[in-house]
Amino acid sequence: MVRISVRVKAIIGATALIVLTALMLNIFLTRHEKKLIQDNILRKSLSVTSTLAYNSEYYVLTANKVALETLIEVVMREHDVLYCSVFDAKGDALASRVKKSISQDELKGAVIVKEYPYENQRVFLKRFKATGQEYCEVDMYVVSGARDASQDEFGILPALNARTRQENVGTVRLGVSLSSVIELTEEARKTVALLTVIMILISGAVTIFASAVMLKPLNALTKGTHEVAAGNMDIRIELKTGDEFEDLAGSFNAMVEKLHETMVSRDSLANEISGRLAAEKTALEAKADWEDSFNAINDMITIHDVDFNIIQANKAAESGLGRAMSDILTNKCFTSYHGKNYPPEGCPSRKVLQTGEISVTELFEPRLSKFVEIKALPRFDAHHKLIGLVHIVRDITERKKMEEKLRAALKEEMRSREIMTSMLEDSSQIGEKLERNLSELKQAQAMLVQSAKLASLGRLVSDMAHEVNNPLMIISGNAQLSLLDNSLGEEIKKNLHIIHEECNRAKSIIQRLLMFSRPSKGEQKPLDINRNIESVVRLLQHQYGLSNVKVYTQFAKDLPPVRADEKQFQEVIMNLLNNARDAMPGGGGGGGGGVIDVSTSLDGERVKIEIKDSGTGMDEATLVNIFEPFFTTKEKGTGLGLSVCYGIIKAHNGELKITSQLNKGTTATIILPIAQGGI
Q: Would you say 125 and 112 are in contact if contact means Cβ atoms under 8 Å apart?
């Protein structure tokens, strides 16, 4: 649809109104002018006719045709007179003169236009068409007697002398052409048309000028609305017209100001909502991270209030207690852990709630059938008011069993020594045999001690990891909560982000330490070799980087699994990597640095693992003794690392081979059979 502007509409409407008015005025003036001309001719015709009738009264009565012809000749001198006739009372023509012949049919077709009464006589005005022109015929009676001039409609008939009676003695007929009327009317029409055109042009120019003047403020308002629609809230319209447009401009400016304030309020509200949503998202992410870390801990952890109610528990607690989470959270802690209706004697939770200090105890819990270490940590609010505690239960059954085995082995050693001493006194041969047995026993004892040390080291690492992980969680949580405070500066927020990221990195390292510190259960199951080696490398990579030792891995894709104990396998890989690190120039202490290449491949029905270093290598004399227990080239070595690794690989039906060249490095090769059935 074509769009027409207001200005064009106004001009079109005004022009149409002016044209219509001019046309109506043209028609009215033309008709009025024509009527005036016609009336003027009629008056003239009536005047001539009445004069002729008045002057011919005597000649009609005397039938003096010559005199009548003379009178008619005078009348015919008028320009518009076409014919003139005088009839007697019987209707016989006494005298007649015609400028142009008119047929009888045309005379019969004439119609009476108007009748003018003069007392007892009548004046007829007729109009007819002949030869394409219009004519008027005036018939007037020749009356003998007085005429009353007051009855003369046109005021042009002379008064006649009063007589005793009035009588029609004849008739005067005058034919007058209307061609002059038509010519004068046409000229009047042209004049009026010219005046109409001039008036239309003048009116159009005035309309265009007026519309331009009136539409200027309207255009300014339209432009202002477009600017506002485009988002420009600084637009203001200044009009000094002193009329409604000035008031409209003021209202427009007030509206824009109000709209600007509304948009500023809306943007501020949107920013506030966006900030709150971002803060809520960060809080939810922080909560999710905390819950993931909380549930990833293998120790049973529950959070209690001051009334011994458990308000939160991790997945390990749900699994260890063998109860649904909803059941744990609706019972007292002593009911869930000990199956009692009151705190047992020596309860660490009660001690913490009484003293506000950390409490640690070890005991055998019959309900769980485990030796456990229970650690209770107090919880305080912002005003340092005790609001509950954190209850951590760690399974130490394996450690207790190891300690019991160690005590039994030491006791057996003492008894064996006494027996061997007694036997040595009787026989040197038996003594030599006993010495060999004693040596083997010492080796076993050393291995047991070393294993106990490793177990103790694992517990120490686990304890340290837990002790470090708890404050890290608090630091990370506080950093995340502080990030929700919009009043903090950008530099402080940047530092808080760094604290949060570093806490997450430290937490990741601690999780790997916890994984490696857990004792092996001796269970062989299908393992993903690449993933386990990658876990060990990630754990050691940072430490090796400090010694300028780089570790590169190249794993075969789609490598089938092997059946092995995960902890023992990781222990072997870690031991071999540590030996490779120690073989570097400077002993891996950061002096010379070096490179360790770790690769996996498929060798028929077996998986091959190679750990190759760029260290100092070994000579033949050293290479033949590396698997001997207690043989070591290190100043602080025990000589048990490779022998333990060798025993573990043999127990998994595998092979461990070491090849080395002096000053060219060493390669350790592990070959393990593929597990049947997959992972």
A: yes
